[in-house]
Amino acid sequence: METKLLLTIPDCCARLGLGRSKIYQLINDGSIPVVRIGKSVRVEAKALEEWVARLQAEAAGEQGE
């Protein structure tokens, strides 16, 4: 199975289980970086995974306090 390097917004929604509006909110506040190709907006799969890892690390740090 081939893994996509760049994800569409619907791909991100499916992977994260979040709605379209929330994904755009995270993009607009700079939490999730994007790649723009003309008018298209894509999210690098690795960047999405790193964002989730940061959230997990922050949650683990809060639990350790």
Structure description:
The structure is a single chain. With 65 residues, the protein is of the alpha+beta class. It has one domain. 55% of the residues lie in helices and 15% in strands. The protein has three helices and three strands. It has a three-stranded antiparallel β-sheet with strand order 1-3-2. Strand 2 and strand 3 form a beta hairpin. It starts with 5 loop residues before the first strand and ends with a helix.
How would you summarize this macromolecular structure in one to three sentences?
The chain is α+β, with helices and mostly antiparallel strands and 65 residues long. It has helices spanning 9-16, 20-28, 45-63, and strands at residues 6-7, 35-37, 40-44.
Describe the structure using short key phrases.
single chain, 65 residues, alpha+beta, three-stranded antiparallel beta sheet, 3 strands
List the helices and strands and how they pair.
Blueprint: E1 6-7, H1 9-16, H2 20-28, E2 35-37, E3 40-44, H3 45-63
